[in-house]
Every structure is written in structure tokens, then in C-alpha cells.
Amino acid sequence: MQDLLYFFQQLINGLTIGSAYALIAIGYTMVYGIIGMINFAHGEVYMIGAYTALIAITGLTAFGIAWLPLVLIVALICAVIVSSSMGWAVERVAYRPVRGRHRLIPLISAIGMSIFLQNYVHLAQGSRNIGFPALMDGGFQFGSADSFQMSLSYMQITIFITTLICMTLLSLFISRSRIGRACRAVSQDLRMANLLGIDTNRIISATFVIGASLAAVAGLLLGMYYGSVDPLFGFIAGLKAFTAAVLGGIGSIPGAMLGGLILGVAESMTSGYLSGEYKDVVSFSLLILILLFKPTGLLGKPEVEKI
Amino acid sequence: MLEVQNLSMRFGGLLAVDQVTLDVQEHEIVSIIGPNGAGKTTVFNCISGFYKPTGGKILFEGGEIQGKPDHKISRLGMVRTFQHVRLFGQMTVVENLLVAQHRHLNTNLLAGLIKTPDYREREQKSLDRAAYWLERVGLMELANREAGNLAYGQQRRLEIARCMVTEPKLLMLDEPAAGLNPAETKDLNQLIISLKEDYNVSVLLIEHDMSLVMDISDRITVINQGRPLAAGTPDEVRNNDDVIKAYLGEA
Amino acid sequence: MATPNFKHALFCAIVTIVIAYPILGLNLVAESTRVIVEGADTTTVISVFAAALVVFLFQLFRDRIMASLGGLPKLNPFADREHMPESKRARLESWVLTGIVVLALFWPFFVSRGSVDLATLVLIYIMLALGLNVVVGLAGLLDLGYVAFYAVGAYTFALLSQYAGVSFWMALPIGACLAALFGLVLGFPVLRLRGDYLAIVTLGFGEIIRILLNNWTALTGGPNGIGGIPDPTLFGMEFGRRVKEEGNTSFHDTFGIAYSSEHKVIFLYLIALILAVITALIIRRFMRMPVGRAWEALREDEIAARSLGLSRTAVKLSAFTIGAFFAGFAGTVFASKQGFISPESFVFLESAIILAIVVLGGMGSQLGVVLAAIAVTILPELAREFSDFRMLVFGAAMVLMMVWRPQGLMPMRRTHIQLRRQE
Fold first, then answer.
1. Closest-CA residue to B5 (of B43, B50, B37, B42)
2. Are A224 and A155 in contact (CB under 8 A)?
3. How far apart are the first and last CA of chain A?
4. What number of other Cβ atoms are within 10 A of residue C311's Cβ?
5. What average pLDDT score do residues B157-183 get?
6. Are residues B79 and B173 in the same domain?
7. CB of B141 within 8 Å of any CB in chain C?
8. Which of A25, A93, A194, C389 is 20 to 30 A from A135 via CA?
9. Does B49 map to a domain?
10. Which structural domain range is residue B174 located in?
11. What sign has the CA pseudo-torsion A119, A122, A125, A131?
């Protein structure tokens, strides 16, 4: 009985982390779908979202505002505004000027951007990790066996629900709105879309902004969940989210969701049954194995090499 | 020498090539013609190993080669050019020719590091071969220019020279006249005939403009919408009703 | 002034404030158990707004600024100069290089111990950057886990000396070959991947190696690392005050001079110098050999290279393995210089620094890479204040270089080849 409860606990933890990974993974998968490049600085955009949220929460507390829903919504809005501006700026400065050049060039530019942003926050906010105030304590307790008790915290529920809302909004946006349709057209064939009068530059910017906004949401959620942020916060999370995107099939939005959940569960099972130290090893190995044996991922479409 | 039997290639639901059969004998120029989008380049890609055909057989000098990796097929002695010229743009003209000759070179790392006599001799031979072909296609003066900076017609000629230094048995040219002016096209046709006459190379040629290949081809295969439409000597093809219909229909 | 331009400029200025102010202007400070927000000093706030103003003005007059920039006389006074004949230039370059090496040979005897130590570090970075240059600059494969091979070299020496008492000279080839083997084994499956996937897989691999080193405590000592790595010997002569190994003599006794700890530092420097020169010479040869041309051909156009019979896997693997080999080389020297290694020295940041050196110097260019290695290592030492900003500047420099000068500060020059006219 205890074993079973322990297993379910790991499952819950994994799904929590996984759904947050999925939010970040959307940014990778959408950008990749449209311009075919890895947005290496995406993890940093997410990290900046987490910092902004923390600054907003702390600032509100200083003014004596402590009504939780208000605090969370203000923090969320601040994080989304700052992160999406950052996403927009990153594309303008580091990616647009090198678009279409030899494939190595945008890649190095993106890595340079990632290093720059990491150190930008490091210099401004210090390298130490800073604690997030515990805003949402407690949760539901489930059947306990022996000394073990399974729990589902309010924080975890919030993460699930927020992810669900974001994903629904995103799907509606992509399928219904004008920009969403243009996004799909551009990801099919950028040059053709351009010829048909779609302002591809705007669509690419929009993609970065959407990805960055979702990353900011994830930044707030995971920052609260882990309870602290530091400038390297985005680096590993970015890698994980990228793994999730590839696992699900890069370019595919449902794939990112699926990939995130699988990765989250795989990770929490490793921490739960093996050792927390090796959870990163497991996810990177997973990434390498997928790229080797099924580079199109679970839900991706095969690419035909054009000559 | 080359025999293609019932070649088919399917991409998802699209049958790009359907039961194409053709052959090239020694000392022969064979052309594949057909309207744009007829599947000519796909046939080429299957023969040269970039695609793995979904059906049919390809035999080169009696051995089956379908599905073999492209670099192995090329090493058997059949090399190709591309519809859009593919040079090593940042390398010099002569370096482009040296890369192609790696099989004739001593690629042993140690031999190269200490410059053994055998290594030097082979290196010199390949330089001479490069020089010969540069002169043959009129690019000798540009030998140390970056290939990417050449004019378009020069790039086309360099691409053919790059194939020839590998001393192929079969040369496959994908729309070699595309983008050339009439004078350049005439020179090119003469070059292709001379490759056959003087260097004993068989040529398989793709062209969508019929008139270009009529003079130089020994035989022509016409394909339309992935299916073989007609085959025979230029005169036979010229007078074939189906071909006329396909081309007039397209025009 | 056109309205859209004004709107766009205003938008850019606002974005500048939005992305700069919260992070720069509001600092999180931990105060006992609580975290509070403090406003930054006035200078920071003013600079944020000044930056926004600059962005605004630049975007507003962008077209005119760009036009006038284009009209400026060339910044490089040598740009318009007649190019030297190729043979003369090559001869001059080899003279200059020989001169530098000779100078570098005698230089350590006249400067302080600290400078020599730093110079040894520079030489290690030169070796690393030359090796990575093969992989990234020549073969066009972005390897973000290069530091893993460096770690393999360093740990090989550390472990061999600890468990088997192997000396530096024995460990040097073993470390390099083991690193090359790692490159071969890991490269084999991953080199089929597209460029950007390769980058992320190598990054993940680098992290895996580091995590393993950190956690395999029984073998590697975990985060505590391995100490007591022996110094190199010169024909059985040790550089310590007392001889540690049976059968060895000490350097100062043999030559009847007073013991000085500087001897060892200079000796290590000279070893690093010789190895760096050897590395440069070997790679220089490779570049002019069929294998080097194949690397570049694959970087330029993989499909064309394959159509000419080059095996993609073999060519990429050779670049990857040779790059790893020299990283292992550098790792062994590093372990010997430090006397102590831990996973701390092999983080992603190191890979990023080496990549920055290659990118700044000019991908493919050896002289450029050497100069960039010197600049990147020494600048933070010269200006202490700068060392905080080091990675910020490197990151920004990588972006700017890619946008404006992807060929690097000293782009690679193509060798001219003399041809004999054929009949």
C-alpha cells in the first residue's frame, strides 16, 4: 500500500513539473516550427519571467497588499509583459539580422544571447538564489499508509489548472484568430506566405511574444513551486523544455504538452526511486535517445530532405 | 551500363515516380525530358542514392544499387550535378576540384603529416588533373578565386569539371543549361559531346526544354506526371503523338 | 518625420524600459528571512532611461544613421591597400609566427611568476580553441559540450597518477587518446543529426559527464575533486624541493643551482608552449590535407560533398575525434598545472568561453584564434572590474560578431595553390 501511494505521489509531482515544462516547451516548438531554429535564449526569458514575478510579489507585499488572487494576477501580468518584451527584443536584436544565413550563424548568435541574458540578471540581481515567499501552503491529504502520506498541494492544483487554461487559450488562438491562422500558414511555407501578403516578420515576432508569455507564466508557477530563483534557473529548465519539445515532436503543440508530461514523470520517478542527482542525466539521455532513434518525436511529421 | 527497372517513389500519398524504366549504354548520351514537376529530379535523386526508392530496381554495371548510401554510389563511378549549382562557396576553385579527388589521394593522416613521397606524388597528380580540367572549361585564370564569387555560367562549368576530375563512368547532369544564355548553352552542348567522344563518359541528362537536347542526345526518355510517356531516338520522340500532346497541352 | 517611424521608435524605447527597469532598477535583497525590493541608485535608473532615449533616437533616425555610417571612410586604414602578393604574404606570416614563438620561449625568464602562470593558462586555452576550431570553424559542427573532452583528459591523468602512479609524459598521450576515443564513441551516433540538434545533444552530453564526475564519489572524489597530481619531470628530474619518486633526481641538484619554485612554473609554461605549437602545426597541416578540405566541403554543402563520394559520417567523425584529441591534450596539461581538479573546472561556461574565442578570432583562422585566446584570457586579469562583466561582454560580442562580422576579427585566408599548366 505504501509503495502504491509513493508511486502515485511521484506521478503527481511529475505531472506538475511536466505541465510547467510543457508551457516552456511551447516557445521552443513554435519558434522551431516557423523559422527552424532553436531559440537558445528561451530558458533565459523564462528565468526573467520568474524574477519579474518575484519582484512584483515582493513589491506588493511592501505596500501591504496581501490578498493572494490579486498578488498572483499582478505578478503574472508583470511577468508576462516583461518576458514578452524580452522575447520580442531578443528576436529583433539577435535573430532577425542573421535569419537566412549559414545555419551556424543564428545558432551562435542565439547562444551568445543566452549567455548575455544570464549574466545580465546575474550582475543586476546577484548570483545567489533568492527565496520566493511561500504564498500557497497546504493541500489535500490522501490516504496514509504507515509513515507515508500522499498529498496534492494547492500549488500543484494551481499549476495544473493554469497550464490547462493557457493551453486551451493557445489552441483557440491558433485555430481561430487571424494571427493564429497566419502563424500556421507561415510554418507551412514561409516564402509562400510572404508572397501571399502575410507580414512574416510580424508573425515571427508574434511567435516569440506568445512563447515568451507562456514561459513567463511557467516562470511564476515554477518559481513558487521550487521556492527560489537564481540566474541559472533558466538554463537547465530550458534544456528540459527543449527535450520535452523534441520528445513530443518539435513543431507540434500537442506534442510539446505530451512531451512535457512524459519528461516530468520520468524525472520524478528517477528522483523518487533512484536519486535526485541523476534526474538530469536521465532527461538528457532521453533527449539523446529520441534524437537518435526517432528524431521526429512522438507526434512530429517526418521531414523530407530537399535538394 | 545503367539500368533502371520499374522505378517508383512515393512520398506519403503522392506517387512522384511511377514505374519508370530506362537504360544508359556505354558511350551514349541519354536524356530524360518532361514538363516541370514531371518527377525527373526525383528519378535522379533515386539513382544517385539521395532517396531510397519505394519500388523497382536500379542496376549499375550489373550490380543492384537501389537503397545504397549516396557516397557509395558516387564511388562506383557515377557522379551528378544539381539543378541549383552546389559548389563549396567559400573554398577556392581549385580546392573544389581537390575535394572531389579525395579517392585518388592518399588519405592516410600520418602519410599527410609527414609528407611521404607517395603522398606528394598523388597530391601533385591531383593538382595536375585539376589544372587540366580548369583549362578545359576555361577557368584556369580563376583557380584561386572563391568559388562562390564566380559568375553563374562559370559556376556551372566548374560543377561539371568537379565531376570530371573524379573520372566517372557515368555523368548525370540536372538541367545543366538552366540560366545560361544561348551562346553559353551552345558551348555547353559541345562540352557534353566532347565528354562522350574524347573521354568516353556516358551522360544522363535532365532537361525540361526539349529543343536543347534533341541535337546531342542519342536516345530520349519522356516522362510526364511521374509516368514514362515515350522513349526512343530524338526523331521518334519528336513525332510521338503522346509527347506532342503533353507538351502542347502544357504550353 | 514619418509617423510609422516615430511610433516604432517610441515602441522600441518603451520595450527598452520594460526589459531593463525591473531587472536593473529593482533589486531583490535577502534580509534575514525575508526578501525585500530595493530601488537601485539614481545612476542606474538614469542610465536605463538614457538607454531608452538612445534607442528612441536611433530608431527614429535609423535610415539616416545607417546611410551616413555607410558613407564613413573605412575604419581600417589597411582595407584599401594593395594586397601583397600571396607568396610574400605567406612568407611574412611564417616569419612573424616564428618570431612570436622565439619571443615566447625566452619571455618567462624575465617576468614574474604570476605572469608565467597566466601565460600557461593562455596556452591551454589556445590548445582548446585550436581544437574546437577544427570542429566548429572547419567542419561546421557546433559542439557545445567540448569541455567534456577536456575533462576526460584532465581526469585521466589525475586518476592514472592516483591509482597507478603514471607520470605526466605517459598520461599525456593516454589522456589525449582516451578523449579522442570518447569523441569517436559519442560522435558516431550523434553526428547524423542536423546542426542545431547536434549542438543541444553535445550540450546535454557535457552536462552528463559533469554530473557523473560530481556524483561518482568513489572514483572521482565528487565535488571535492582529486588533488596531489604530480608535476611533469624533465628526463627523470623533479622540480620539487625534495625528490618524491624513487630513482629520480631533482632539477636544482643536478645543475647545482639554488632551489626555486619558479623553475617548475617556467618548465610547465615551456611544455604548454611546445604542445601549443605542435597543436597549431599539426592542425595547420590537416587544413591543407584532403581531410581538412573534406571538413570544409561538408560545412559548405553537405549534399554536394556526399554526391562526390565523401562519407558524411567518416568526415564528421574525424573532425570530432581530432578536436577531442587536442582537448584531452590540454586537459592533461591543465591537471598538471593546477595539481588539483574538480568538476567545477568543467562547466558549460568553459565551453562557452572556448566557443567565444573561436568565434571572435574568426572561424577557421589560426592566427585569429590565438590572438583571441590571449585577449579573452588576459583582459579580465588586467582589469579586475572587467572580470565581472566578462561573460556579459562575451555573450554580447558573440551576437554582434554574428550580425556584423561572422567571419571573425581575423578571417581565415585561403591558401593559394600554384598550378602547372597542362597541355
1. B43
2. yes
3. 59
4. 20
5. 91
6. yes
7. no
8. A25
9. yes
10. 2-87+168-250
11. positive
| Residues in chain A within 8 Å Cβ distance of C18 | 81-82, 85
For residue C157, the distance in angstroms to the closest alpha carbon of chain A comes to: 25
Q: Are residues B53 and B104 in the same domain?
A: no
- How many alpha carbons fall within 13 Å on the CB side of residue A58? 25
Three cell numbers, residue A299: 507526434
User: Is residue B138 located within the same domain as residue B196?
Assistant: no
State the chains in contact with C (3 or more Cβ–Cβ pairs under 8 Å).
A, B
B60 contacts on C by Cβ (under 8 Å): none
Q: What is the CATH number of the domain that holds B177?
A: 3.40.50.300
Do B176 and B72 lie in one domain? The reply is yes
Strand partners, B219: B30
Residue B117 has pLDDT above 60, yes or no: yes
Does one domain contain both B180 and B136?
no
> What's the total number of domains in chain B?
2
| Distance in angstroms (rounded) separating the CA atoms of residues C317 and B109 | 14
Measured CA to CA in angstroms, residue C14 lies from A146, C42, C46, C418 at distances of 58, 19, 15, 58
The position carrying cell 500500500 is A1
Evaluate whether residue B125 is within a structural domain.
Answer: yes
Kindly state whether A202 is in contact with chain C, defined as any CB-CB distance less than 8 angstroms: no
Q: Give me the torsion for CA of A176, A179, A184, A186, rounded to 10°.
A: 160
Burial C82-116 (b: 16+ CB within 10 A, else e): eeeeeeeeeeeeeeebeeeeeebeebbeeeeeebb
Please indicate whether residue C407 or residue B187 has the higher confidence score (pLDDT): B187
Rounded to an integer, what is the distance from CA A176 to the centroid of its chain? 23
Set of cell numbers at residue B2: 545503367
Among candidate residues C226, C229, C183, the one with its CA nearest the CA of residue C343: C226
Domain-located, residue B163? no
Distance, in angstroms, between A142 CA and closest chain C CA? 31
Interface size between A and C, measured as CB pairs under 8 A: 177
pLDDT of residue B203: 93
Which sequence spans correspond to the domains of chain C? 3-71, 100-404
The top-level CATH class assigned to C100-404 is mainly alpha
B158 occurs within a structural domain: no
Task: Provide the residue count of chain C.
Answer: 423
| Mean of all residue pLDDT scores within chain B | 87
- ipTM score of the complex? 0.90
* Grid-cell match 573554398, residue found: B91
pLDDT at position C75 is 52
- On whether both B55 and B70 belong to a single domain, the answer is yes
- Tell me, what's the pLDDT at C136? 92
Band (pLDDT 50/70/90 cuts) for residue B251 is very low
CA dihedral for C188, C193, C198, C202, sign (positive or negative): negative
Evaluate if pTM is beyond 0.95: no
pLDDT in 10s for each residue of chain A, 307 residues: 778 888 888 899 999 999 999 999 999 998 888 888 888 899 999 999 999 999 999 888 888 887 888 999 999 999 999 999 999 999 999 999 988 888 788 888 998 999 999 999 998 888 888 888 877 777 788 777 667 778 888 889 999 999 999 999 998 988 888 888 888 888 877 888 888 888 888 889 999 999 999 999 999 999 999 888 888 888 888 888 988 998 888 888 888 999 999 999 999 998 888 877 788 888 888 888 888 788 788 877 766 555 5
Residues B174 and B136 in one domain: no
**Residue holding cell 550489373?**
B62
Question: Percent of chain C having pLDDT more than 90?
Answer: 27
Kindly report the number of other CB atoms within 10 A of residue C72's CB atom. 7
Question: How far apart are the C-alpha atoms of C93 and C67, rounded to whole Å?
Answer: 37
* Partners of B228 in the β-ladder: B223
Q: Are residues B188 and B235 in the same domain?
A: yes
pLDDT digits (tens, 9 = 90+) for B92-107: 999 999 999 887 766 6
CB contact under 8 A, B95 and C289: no
Give which of C173, C388, C412 is closest to C300, Cα–Cα. C412
Cβ separation A102–C195 shorter than 8 A: no
